[in-house]
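Q: Hi! First time doing this. I have a protein sequence and I read that you can turn it into a structure. Is that right? Here it is:
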Amino acid sequence: MTQEIIIGVAGLTASGKTTIAELLEEKAGAQRIKYSDLLALMAKERNLNHTDKATLQNLFLRGRDAQGEDFLSKEMEKRVALMTGNLIIIEGNRRLTDVETLKRIATGRNAALKLLFIEAPIEIRFARYNERLIRNGETPITAEAFATLEANGAESELPQVRALFEKEGTI
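A: Yes, that's right. Below is the predicted 3D structure, encoded as structure tokens:
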């Protein structure tokens, strides 16, 4: 029997997380789930713009303030428990509690845990982000607006997550 593998993917906005996850999904038959998809569902339930990153970030911050730091990680853990397969990708880990959740999920499933932190220069990420907006029929944003998104409190632990992934995983 092949050992199950959980892959946690993290990185800054538009660094290539989804591209890597989709390739693993397509080429290796992985199942994947994204933190941003959980937030998008919550936004839809509240009749908020489910494609706007700032809306999702602020929804996360409000949920964290009301329900605790790990409210979204707990929801992720519930959903991953329903998944089957030998390769599961959990995309968009942005908080230290997300990393603890990855470890708990892997341990509970007796699975190997791999951590991938994806990086790209800011100029490339900014261009990719605007390409995504245009593809979705939305208006591109300025470099200043992109910097504001990156400075949002929902992104504040990414440097610590990166350091942890560097120590325990792959950059």
